[in-house]
Amino acid sequence: MLHSSMNAAVTMGQLQKKLDVIGNNMANSNTPGYKNRQAEFSSLLYQQINHVENEGANPNRLTPEGLRVGSGAYVTSTDVDMSQGSIQETGRPLDVALLKDNHMFQVDVTQNGQTERMYTRDGSFSLSANEDGTVSLVTSNGHPVIGENGPIRIEAGYKSVSVREDGVILVERNGVQMAEDRLLIVDATRPRFLESAGKNLYAIPDTNINADDIMEDVPLMNTSLKQGALETSNVDMANQMTEMMMTQRAYQFNSRSISMGDQMMGLVNQLR
């Protein structure tokens, strides 16, 4: 009886993690480029309990001897769905939508004095002035966007900046458009290995996995972008509501199991 209560308590803790994932998906349903995440469950270790041997029952036995008792369930991983979201026209020159699954922009994120390369699908870019008079192409969170020559910087004196379908940055000066850089797009060949870093960013986990085994540079001919548009989140709100209700019901079942186990132990303690 105590064992069943322990199983329920362990599972409730893991179901809460799934509810947190669902809540995060729903909160980011309107975030450009956000990708839906899903918690995957697995059973914990089983304990084999053997019965007292009964030779007389063996000839007609249809089930294996012993009893396998579980220890609850746990969240093994939180997988990301990199499928394409809807494309929403904005008309803004620096809004860029990726048109192929698993393609991602590269950005430099500086935290605690250290700069790390991260990845995002959010193409809502803007220009940020630098002290030397140049401007940098940055994300909505102010992180520099990476091009073929490193962080994309544009010299002063420009009239307009636009992005071509192949990722080339076009800068207009004195009525003439010139290509000054190109967005360095990568293909997440193994997106399940990416680690969520918050603020719609993904990072390579601190493991023995080589970054080249997860990411590949996308050549110019395979780059496909749409200027003046953003990719919306691929979160299905109807599906998330259904998942939330099912998870809450499972949480309720396990909670009820603990309550019933407590009542049964109370009855046993009252026996004379």
TrEMBL record:
Its main location: other. Residues 103-170 form the Flagellar hook protein FlgE/F/G-like D1 domain. InterPro entries: Flag_bb_rod_N (IPR001444), Flagellar_basal_body_rod_CS (IPR019776), Flagellar_FlgE/F/G (IPR020013), Flg_bb/hook_C_dom (IPR010930), FlgE/F/G-like (IPR037925), LlgE_F_G-like_D1 (IPR053967). GO terms for cellular component: bacterial-type flagellum basal body. Residues 226-271 form the Flagellar basal-body/hook protein C-terminal domain. Keywords: Bacterial flagellum, Cell projection, Cilium, Flagellum. Residues 9-35 form the Flagellar basal body rod protein N-terminal domain. GO terms for biological process: bacterial-type flagellum-dependent swarming motility. It is found in: Bacterial flagellum basal body. Belongs to the flagella basal body rod proteins family. This is Flagellar hook-basal body protein.
